[in-house]
Structure prediction request, 289 residues.
Amino acid sequence: MGLRHLARRGSAPATRTLAGLPGGIVTRRRGRGSEPEDVRLWSEGDDRRFIDRNATARTGQLHVRTHYDERDRAVVLLADFRLSMLFGTRRALRSVAAAEALALLGWRVAADGGRVGLAVASAGAPTVLRPAGGERAMIAVTGALAQAHADALAAESGAPARAEPPLEATLGLARSLLPAGGHLVIASALDDPGPGFDELLTLLAERIAIRLILVSDAFERTRPPGYYPFALANGRRGTALPNAAGPAEESAEARLADYARRGIASVRLDVETGPEAYAPLMERLDAVL
Prediction:
């Protein structure tokens, strides 16, 4: 809720969409919308039904009225609160940064007349909210995000190491909340998303618009030299000396480029920079929704 003021920055009334309508629209509608857009001079081929009588009588020349195409923008925010996201070395956990970015984006969408829904991936049962419009819907989303994160922390506190649940199951659930032509925004570090995640993501990108917020902690990009203890889900423990930039390590930039080739627009979110730096990134992401 405290990030709402940041989401207002840079939003102009001229860019706002109309109120949400039932169903999703992928292509231009036949006919016209109900909201007037402009009045212009008549040109050959214009439909006579759209003649503006007032402007024509006032100027003595034929004028026609044009209208907006009404579109419904339904957006589902997918937050990754699995165990790997409950980690951070500067400012906040990766899961917190993901929630901050999604809240900023959600407030922008709601202010522009869109509908916002939520799907949260965690070790327990997923949290799901169907897309709805208005301030009350976004308040419900922020409350659900906060509760789901608190539940994720409580579930993992003192729990023995266990395998990460796949992200693909929540991905399919989030897709079921959207109409054709809807928008899905995923905030995750994509650690161990599941064997079928990339294939499912590529298939879904053909039906809906998918955007990715790749959350990155400073430790992943610039590790201080030294030995690091580790513990795996299978109970194995040890000490490792990771390379600063090993050849097998896939950089964030390479992952973003790979998703861009599949038609999935994405941004990298550096946890340590904070919400003030996230706001322009979410504005840029909002522009392609």
